[in-house]
């Protein structure tokens, strides 16, 4: 698309053709996780501007548009044609444009005498956001339209539900057009996932029936990785597992998403730099805002995003030590090369070290990039750690020190009585993670649930509410009214909002779930002492008091459903799942010949929202399955705080 919809366009000098990229918010969200500003520039994009911003005419440059075919966007594009803003126009629509809107553009081009300047018009079928090679989400803009709350509202009308389903199906259709494959669809009965399956099956059938205009013929079939065998699409309803989105987590990527402002692969940090004294008294210094892109180009992120957090802290420390050793070597060689005088020994030493210095200089760009990544992950991991332990800093001018010195100062101060007096409440996320794992795997707790909720020194009200909801969802025995009242009183005393509990209570009663809806396996986490020496002595990260937990691999409900369907296993959980094959143009569901062989490729799509915990669980599952591909998708990506907000709104009804 950025090369005018041909593989490579270059001018006579071999340079890319310079052009302007015009997108709306939807287009911006699709492009930003995939391409950096530098990569856009390498493709000849000199400017990238929002469609509805004030734009000056650039009459000698072509413009590539990438927008949704909405009424508002079409009007603005027609206005651009009338104003003769650019030399030529390449119009790319994220979803298919209707005939009537295409005619509106044609009329505007005629009226503006700009017909010859409209070079190409394409339906791109790109209405989804790719966050990883194996993960996609439907939308970021207007995500509340397809949210868990939108689908599960008690007062939703049939018309509104149709609109929600159509929005999801349109995006999934775009996804499979891009993949170049027609899936076999499986879904549970009586859920929103079934409504999506029925509509998607119908839309794929209609496209395949029109052989001349089908999007699944010719070249596209070889475009995706699924060209040799048809993939399985497993549509799962969020209601099959409400505990996992509330779970405190212990892996790097999921922790960053849980406790920091992280969306579309960018994390935004607010660094508070101590306090300042003013006539009105002490007050926090102005916060320093920073943004970091966590993308596949970042090798450290790619390697460690699924690792337990203490391992990440140790790896940052190891990278830092390696960098410092390399830096010291360059400095040593520099000082040797700076020797002056006629001393033969000095000259001999210089010649011996010339090759080493040349090698060191050639590795400098790589070394500087390593330093940038160390700084990035030091800052991100420190921000995560502050949430785990929720420590607040003393009145020290932190700006005078490097980030490493600051961490060392905090470490020293932690041992002083004064510091313990001013540190705030500890969230103890490691403790919450461990307790929730035990609850979900039916292991005996060291401490009663009531004691944890009542502990004023552990966690925020939201942490306590998340823990209790996981217990309530996972327990086989619904607590008696007397017990529930006792829990509610403890939660209220801890400052919790009880609205989410109201909804979960109704949800459980409605689903007639006297026993646990899902099983989370029987293994649990174990504390591990292997890294404690590093954590307590050598690390820049102040890990004392934070449990170092070993993660045991266990399949979450969504992964287990996928495994049953992908491996064609017979299981009561999935035996009654519906089966759709859009390529079978005739015959009802029961008469459709079914695929009997295990699938090599699958897409799991969660209707009602997904999370990084589930994604990581599927990544870990796939590692044990040689040669299999699994992609994870969801209607929206939320963390526990955002999900709690939706449950609270539903509980108010």
- Total strand segments: 19
Second rung of CATH, namely the architecture of the largest domain: 3-Layer(aba) Sandwich
Label the structural class: alpha/beta
Weakly predicted, low-confidence segments: 219-227, 391-399, 411-425, 513-517, 522-539
Q: Would you identify the CATH H-level superfamily of the largest domain? A: Sec1/Munc18 (SM) protein, domain 2
Number of contiguous helices: 23
User: What's the gyration radius in Å?
Assistant: 28 Å
**Which strand-content bin applies to the residues?**
5-15%
Please list the strands of the largest sheet in the order they lie side by side.
Answer: 6-7-19-18-9-8-17
Shape: globular
Largest sheet: 7 strands, mixed
Which CATH first-tier class of the largest domain would you pick? Alpha Beta
Task: Provide a descriptive summary of the structure in words.
It contains 23 helices and 19 strands. The protein is of the alpha/beta class and 653 residues long. It folds into four domains: 19-124, Rossmann fold, CATH 3.40.50.2060; 130-241 and 556-652, Sec1/Munc18 (SM) protein, domain 2 (Rossmann fold, 3-Layer(aba) Sandwich), CATH 3.40.50; 244-250 and 426-550, Alpha Horseshoe (Serine Threonine Protein Phosphatase 5, Tetratricopeptide repeat), CATH 1.25.40; 301-422, no CATH class. Helix 8 (252-259) packs across helix 12 (364-389) and helix 19 crosses helix 23. The two termini are 46 Å apart. Mean pLDDT is 81; it is low at 219-227, 391-399, 411-425, 513-517 and 522-539.
């Amino acid at each position: 698309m950025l090369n005018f919809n041909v593989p490579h366009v270059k001018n006579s000098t071999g340079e890319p053709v310079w052009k302007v990229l015009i997108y709306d918010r939807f287009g911006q969200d699709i492009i930003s996780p995939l391409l950096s500003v530098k990569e856009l520039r390498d493709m000849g994009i000199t400017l990238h501007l929002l469609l509805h911003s004030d734009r000056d005419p650039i009459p000698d440059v072509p413009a590539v548009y990438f927008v949704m075919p909405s009424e508002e966007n079409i009007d603005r594009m027609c206005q651009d044609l009338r104003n003769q803003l650019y030399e030529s126009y390449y119009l790319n629509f994220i979803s298919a444009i209707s005939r009537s809107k295409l005619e509106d553009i044609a009329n505007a081009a005629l009226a503006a005498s700009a017909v010859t300047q409209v070079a190409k018009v394409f339906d791109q079928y790109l209405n989804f956001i790719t966050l990883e090679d194996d993960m996609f989400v439907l939308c970021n803009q207007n995500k509340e339209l397809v949210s868990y709350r939108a689908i599960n509202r008690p007062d939703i009308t049939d018309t509104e539900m149709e609109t929600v389903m159509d929005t999801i199906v349109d995006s999934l259709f775009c996804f499979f057009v891009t993949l170049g494959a027609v899936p076999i669809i499986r879904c549970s009965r009586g859920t929103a996932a079934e409504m999506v399956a029925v509509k998607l099956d119908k839309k794929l059938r209609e496209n395949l029936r029109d052989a001349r205009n089908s999007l699944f013929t010719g070249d596209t079939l070889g475009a995706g990785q699924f060209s040799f065998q048809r993939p399985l699409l497993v549509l799962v309803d969020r209601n099959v597992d409400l505990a996992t989105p509330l779970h405190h987590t212990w892996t790097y990527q999921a922790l960053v998403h849980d406790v920091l402002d992280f969306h579309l692969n960018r994390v935004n940090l607010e660094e508070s730099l101590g306090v300042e004294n003013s006539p009105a008294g002490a007050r926090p210094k102005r916060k320093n805002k920073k943004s970091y892109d966590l993308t596949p180009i970042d090798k450290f992120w790619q390697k460690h995003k699924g690792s337990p957090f203490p391992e990440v802290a140790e790896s940052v420390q190891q990278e830092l030590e390696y960098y410092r050793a390399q830096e010291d070597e360059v400095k040593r060689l520099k000082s040797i090369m700076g020797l002056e005088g006629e001393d033969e020994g000095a000259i001999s030493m210089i010649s011996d070290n010339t090759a080493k210095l040349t090698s060191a200089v050639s590795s400098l760009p790589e070394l500087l990039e390593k330093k940038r990544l160390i700084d990035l992950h030091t800052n991100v991991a420190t921000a995560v750690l502050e949430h785990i332990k929720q420590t607040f800093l003393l009145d020290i001018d932190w700006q005078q020190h490097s980030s490493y010195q600051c961490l060392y100062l905090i470490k020293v101060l932690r041992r002083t009585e004064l510091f313990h007096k001013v540190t705030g409440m500890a969230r103890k996320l490691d403790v919450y993670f461990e307790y929730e794992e035990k609850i979900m795997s039916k292991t005996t707790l060291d401490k009663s649930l009531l004691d944890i909720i009542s502990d004023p020194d552990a966690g925020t009200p939201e942490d306590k509410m998340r823990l209790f909801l996981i217990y309530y969802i996972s327990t086989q025995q619904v607590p008696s009214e007397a017990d529930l009242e006792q829990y509610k009183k403890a939660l209220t005393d801890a400052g919790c909002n009880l609205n989410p509990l109201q909804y979960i209570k109704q949800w459980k009663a409605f689903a007639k779930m006297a026993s646990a809806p899902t099983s989370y396996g029987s293994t649990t986490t174990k504390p591990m002492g292997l890294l404690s020496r590093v954590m307590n002595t050598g690390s820049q990260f102040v890990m004392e008091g934070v449990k170092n937990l070993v993660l045991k691999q266990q399949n979450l409900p969504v992964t287990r459903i996928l495994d049953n369907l992908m491996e064609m296993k017979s299981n009561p959980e999935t035996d009654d799942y519906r089966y759709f094959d859009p390529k079978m143009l005739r015959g009802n569901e029961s008469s459709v010949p079914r695929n009997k062989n295990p699938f090599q490729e699958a897409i799991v799509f969660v209707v009602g929202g997904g999370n990084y915990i589930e994604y990581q669980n599927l990544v870990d599952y796939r590692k044990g399955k040689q040669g299999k591909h699994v992609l994870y998708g969801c209607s929206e990506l939320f963390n526990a705080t955002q999900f709690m907000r939706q449950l609270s709104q539903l509980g108010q009804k």
